[in-house]
Amino acid sequence: MAVYLVLGAAALVWGNLRGQPDVWRLGAHEPALAMTFASLVCGLAAGALLVFLSRLALYRFEWSRALHRELRDMLFPLTEVEIIVLAAASSVGEELFFRGALMPAVGLVLSSAIFALLHIGPKARHLPWTASSFGAGLLFGAIFLWTGDLTGPVLAHFLVNFLNLRHVAEVELR
């Protein structure tokens, strides 16, 4: 949990040092209400798509089942409240840092690659998870670039983490 607080704090400090203290918004202007709404809709759609794809991977690929089992062994038991807090902290902290602070400085592709490196596992079989994290980073970043608002990427990231953590908690694979 502390790593997400550090990422969020680093994003705010970096934004202030860059002269862009509002890292939730891209650029200096407030996006129109329509773009904030578009960000929400995109976030819901992206989150649903990524959860669907992760479930598809879980039932089609051994690397995904192995990751599921390892996460279950490492993280659980967690209560429902702990799952919500972990999903919220990770989505806000990571999006503030990787999209809000880092992406304007280094671009979409490099910020997504660094985001993917945060999701690298200790074994070669985890590389598909790293690659899918790169794809998710590109998607979250594209939403941020299009709407100028982090609401959608944070919502998508929260849905992915929350629904997948709940699934890991509820489904034991052997």
SSE arrangement:
Blueprint lengths: L1 H17 L14 H28 L1 H14 L4 H27 L1 H11 L8 H21 L3 H20 L4
Helix pairs in contact: 1-4, 2-3, 2-6, 2-7, 4-5, 4-6, 4-7, 5-6, 6-7
What does this structure look like?
With 174 residues, the protein is mainly alpha-helical. Helix 2 (33-60) packs parallel to helix 7 (151-170) and helix 5 (108-118) packs antiparallel against helix 6 (127-147). The chain has one domain. The protein has helices spanning 2-18, 33-60, 62-75, 80-106, 108-118, 127-147, 151-170.
Name the features.
mainly alpha; 174 residues; 7 helices
Content-based structural category = mainly alpha
Helix content: over 70%
Please state the CA-atom Rg, rounded to the nearest Å: 16 Å
- Indicate the low-confidence ranges by residue numbers: none
Residue-averaged pLDDT, rounded? 92
- Assign an overall shape: globular
N-to-C order of helices and strands: HHHHHHH
- Overall tally of structural domains: 1
Distance between the termini: 28 Å
Strand content: under 5%
Number of helices: 7
Q: Characterize the largest beta sheet: strand count, sense, and whether it forms a barrel.
A: none
